[in-house]
Specification:
This protein is an all-alpha fold. The chain contains 8 helices and no strands.
C-alpha cells in the first residue's frame, strides 16, 4: 500500500510538471504560429492546425509518461524533445497552405532548428543520468513524425513525386509488419549505420525543401536518401528474421 501511494504521488508530480511544460510550450508555439501566419499570409486555420498537432502529441506524452518514465521529473532532455515536437507542429501546420519562396525558406529554418535539437536531447539524457524507455520512444516517434511531415511538404511544394512519401511511411510500414510478423517485434539494436541514415534522411528532405533547390535536383537528393533508408530497414528486417525463434517475444 505504501509503495503504491508513493508511486501515485510521484506520478502526480511527474504529470503536473509535464503539464506545466506542455502549457508553456503551447503558449509559445501559438504566439509564433500567429506571428508567422501574419508575416507569411497563411490561412486563418494555420494556428489551429499547429495547435491541434501539438495537442495530439502532448496528449500521447501524458498518457505514456506514468508507465515508462522512472523519474518524478520530465527532465531537460524530454523538454528539448517537446520543443522539437512544437517545431514539427509548426511545419505540419504548413500542410495545405500555399507555396512560396518565403514559406519554403521558413520551413527550412524551422526544420533545421528541429534537426539541431535532435542531437541535444539524447546527450542531455545521458549526461543527466535520466535516460529512460519513455525518452527513447519519445525521441524516436518525434523523429518519425518529423520525417513524415518533411516528406509531405517536399511533395506538396512540387519538389518530388508522391513516391517521396515512402520516406515518412517507412517507420510505420515497419511497425505494421511487426504487428503481423512476431519475429519482427524484437528490439533492433541501435547502430551507427542506422543513426547516420536517419540524419541523412532528414538533411536530404530539408535540402530538397530549399527554394534554391530545383525539382529535378531535389527529387534526386530525396531519392538517394530514400534508397539508403530502404536498405537500412531491409538490413534490420533481415537481422530480425535471422534471430533464434526462442528470442522472439
Amino acid at each position: 500500500m505504501l509503495t503504491t501511494a508513493i508511486a501515485q504521488s510521484e506520478h502526480r508530480e511527474l504529470l503536473r510538471g509535464a503539464l506545466i511544460g506542455i502549457l508553456a510550450v503551447a503558449l509559445s508555439i501559438v504566439s509564433v504560429a500567429a506571428l508567422g501566419a501574419g508575416l507569411l499570409h497563411l490561412s486563418t486555420t494555420y494556428v489551429a492546425k499547429v495547435l491541434l498537432v501539438f495537442a495530439s502529441g502532448a496528449a500521447l506524452v501524458l498518457l505514456a509518461l506514468p508507465g515508462s518514465h522512472r523519474s518524478a521529473r520530465l527532465g531537460a532532455a524530454n523538454l528539448v524533445t517537446l520543443v522539437r515536437g512544437a517545431l514539427v507542429a509548426l511545419l505540419a501546420g504548413l500542410l495545405g497552405e500555399h507555396g512560396s519562396p518565403a514559406i519554403s525558406t521558413t520551413a527550412v529554418i524551422v526544420a533545421s532548428a528541429a534537426l539541431v535539437l535532435d542531437g541535444v536531447d539524447g546527450r542531455l539524457a545521458r549526461r543527466s543520468g535520466m535516460a529512460s524507455e519513455f525518452g527513447a520512444r519519445f525521441d524516436m516517434e518525434t523523429d518519425a513524425v518529423f520525417v513524415a511531415v518533411l516528406a509531405l511538404l517536399v511533395w506538396q511544394f512540387g519538389k518530388a513525386g508522391a513516391w517521396v512519401l515512402l520516406s515518412g511511411l517507412m517507420r510505420y510500414l515497419f511497425a505494421a509488419g511487426a504487428a503481423l510478423v512476431p519475429r519482427l517485434q524484437r528490439p533492433v539494436p541501435s547502430t551507427f549505420r542506422g543513426k547516420c541514415i536517419a540524419v541523412l534522411q532528414m538533411i536530404a528532405l530539408i535540402v530538397a525543401l530549399a527554394p534554391v533547390c530545383n525539382p529535378p535536383v531535389a527529387a534526386s537528393i530525396a531519392a538517394v536518401a530514400l534508397l539508403a533508408l530502404v536498405v537500412s530497414f531491409s538490413l534490420d528486417v533481415v537481422w530480425l528474421l535471422r534471430q533464434p525463434v526462442d528470442d522472439v517475444p
